[in-house]
Each structure stands twice: as structure tokens, then as C-alpha cells.
Amino acid sequence: MKIENDLILRAARGEETERVPVWVMRQAGRVLSEYRATRAQAGSFKSLLMNPQLAAEVTIQPVDILGVDAAILFSDILVIPEAMGLPYRMDEGKGPSFENTIQSQADVDKLSTEQVLDNLKYVFDAITTIKRDLHNRVPLIGFAGAPWTIFCYMVEGRGSKTFSISRSMLSENPELAHRLLRKITDATIVYLKQQIACGCNMVQLFDSWAGILNKDTYNTFALPYIEEICQAIDTVPMTVFAKGAFFSMEEMGQLPCRTLGIDWHTSPEFARRLAGPDKTLQGNLDPAVLYGSEEFVISETKRMLDRFGSHKYIANLGHGVYPDINHEKLKLFIQTVQAHQFNRS
Ligand code: CP3
Predict the structure, then answer these.
(1) Nearest CA to ligand 1 atom 28
(2) Does 39 qualify as catalytic in the annotation?
(3) Shortest CA distance to 222 belongs to which of 319, 146, 111, 144?
(4) What is the distance between the alpha carbons of residues 131 and 124, in angstroms, rounded to a whole number?
(5) Contacts of residue 78, Cβ cutoff 8 Å, sequence gap at least 6
(6) Whose CA is nearest to atom 22 of ligand 1?
(7) Which of 13, 30, 36, 158 is catalytic?
(8) Which CATH class is domain 7-339?
(9) Does ligand 1 have an atom closer than 6 angstroms to the CB of 29?
(10) In whole angstroms, what is the distance from residue 192 CA to residue 181 CA?
(11) How do residues 187-231 score in pLDDT, each as one tens digit?
(12) pTM for the whole structure
């Protein structure tokens, strides 16, 4: 089952590639009118991701429409708390929310890791359907939220500017925090392993709220669990994207994963110097560049490429694409990467 275009897997493994591969975080989403049409057909975001056939459709749309070098499973990081017993809602324009949150030992004890695979059968069915319909044209990326980010949603119940409840728990009741992080980590390992068993060719951990912590709290409450997940996932390349965690770049360079995702606050030179020569880097165009003119998109993309270099590099944005960006600009970004000639002096 050879994958026709496996550039991204080779770049992740540190091998030489003919050109730099590119995909885009949130490439399956509102930026595409085809996505909005399929979501309308499903009725809601949650019914879309729970419908394997429609989830497969929106996963494959960016490969056909944008020409990206990888597909990413259409799902959400919040399926894990739900599978452990905390259901979430996704209200249009308001983002995700949880009716029940985790505040006590009893709340943590009630969470189950046993039913995760059964409860997430719809995700595995989607992966099987995607693999069938993608015909091995490009690799399929699976993903999960990193334990700290999932912890934030389970404790806070929603997104937040300060994550005060979550961060208080770290200082007020570190034991309880570790207990919850332990459970999330166990569930995440089982979940990612099953994504891989169903056909995902690489996986990414999203630590979206990494930047709210400081170096000490990140190294105590986030990195050890990420390290454990990296160690458990030893059959496919793994990417760790810790948004805002420039302060722990050196420690992330030591993680047993292949690729580090870089946000746009971090310079390519800083990331390379601190992460070391071995890691593949992924990122990091400021998504707001895509609001600019065609000339600006092209020149900023080329500048980014020359700074990262042609080796051990996967081009992407520094975070997910914004829904109000013109998809033609996104396509221009992708085509600019794919056509770029590096100066090999
Ligand atoms: O990247 C992809 O194309 C794959 C699909 C994907 C989604 N969510 C679909 C989605 C992935 C990888 C995610 C990850 C995710 N989900 C993260 C980590 C990445 C990041 O953005 O930092 C987080 C924090 C979530 C939680 C989440 N889901 C939030 C905060 C929101 C609301 C944001 C918004 O733009 O409204 C979602 C909803 C969501 N997940 C949408 C999509 C396409 C938008 C829902 C819609 O169709 O209206």
C-alpha cells in the first residue's frame, strides 16, 4: 500500500525530499465553501464529525481543492473528554463548552478510560472510510489534544483568557491535577494507537494552551505527559505542536518525537538553534499574512521557506487558518511552497 505522495512522511523522518511538503492546520473547515455545504447537510458540527461518510468527505476536500500534501482527520480534540464521560456542546459563534467540569477527586474518579475505544468508534469508522476513499494519494494525519490542553477544557468548561481555574488547581491541588493529567494521558495513548491501527500515517498532538503556562509549570504539568505519549507512539512519525511554548523549546528538542510545530511568535532560527539539528520543524507563517495582497503572500512565504531551509522541514501556518480568509490566498500559499526553488549555494 504505497502512498503516491509521501513527501511529508519522508520530511518527518528527516530524509531528503525533492521539495518541501505543505499542509495547513484547519484546512478542513469554514474557509472552504464545500465544507460549509457538507456541514449544512449534516446539520451541525457534531453530527458532521460523528458521520463517518461526511467526515471523510470534508477530510478529503482540501486534498482535491487546495492540493495539500497531507489530509488531516476531520474531528476535534474534545472527543476525548466526551468519551471519558464529559459531553461537550459546540454552539455556533460561541465555541465549545462543557456542562459538567472536573473540580474534585470524586469527579476524576468518575471519569472512565475503559470505554474510550467503544465511544469513539465513529472516529475509527471515519478513518477507515477516509483511507478507502483517499486511495493512498497522500498520507493521513491523525491527532489528539495534548493532556494540558484537554485538562484546561475539562476543568474550565470552556476557552478562557486566563484559565484561572485550571492554573489555580496546579498550585492549590497539584496531586489532583496530576491524577487528571494521568487519566487523560492513558486515554490519549489508547486513542492514538487505535487511529494508527485504522490507518493514520502520522499523528500530531495539539497543545493549544501551552503558552498560558510558564517554563516551570509547563515542564512539570505538560511535558512529562507529552513525553510519555511520544514514547508510546513508536510506529509512525509524531508531531508535537505546543503553541506559545517557546520557553521550553530546548526541552522539546529532547522529546522522542520527530517533528515540532512552530507558531509564528517563534523565529525559525530560534527554533532550530534550541531544538537542535535532528528535529523536523513545521510551521510557521502568521495566518494574518493571508489577509494581504498576492505579492505579499508570495514574498512572505518565500522568506519563511528560505529561513527554515529545504531539509527537515514541513511548511504550514503558525496556527489554524482563520475562517474569513479567502481560500484563493490559502491556495496561493500552498502553490508558492510547492514551486519554491531554494538557493543551493
Ligand atoms: O485541522 C483540521 O482541518 C482538522 C480538524 C480539526 C478541528 N479541530 C475541526 C474544527 C482539528 C485538528 C481541531 C483541533 C482543535 N479543536 C484544537 C487544537 C487546534 C487549535 O485550533 O488550537 C482546539 C483547541 C479545538 C477545540 C475547538 N473546536 C474550538 C476552540 C473550536 C471553536 C473555534 C471556532 O473557530 O469556532 C472548535 C470547533 C471546530 N473544530 C471547527 C472545526 C472545523 C469549527 C466548527 C464549525 O464548523 O463551525
Answers:
(1) 76
(2) yes
(3) 146
(4) 11
(5) 88, 90, 96, 145, 150, 153
(6) 208
(7) 30
(8) alpha beta
(9) yes
(10) 16
(11) 999 999 999 999 999 999 999 999 999 999 999 999 999 999 999
(12) 0.97
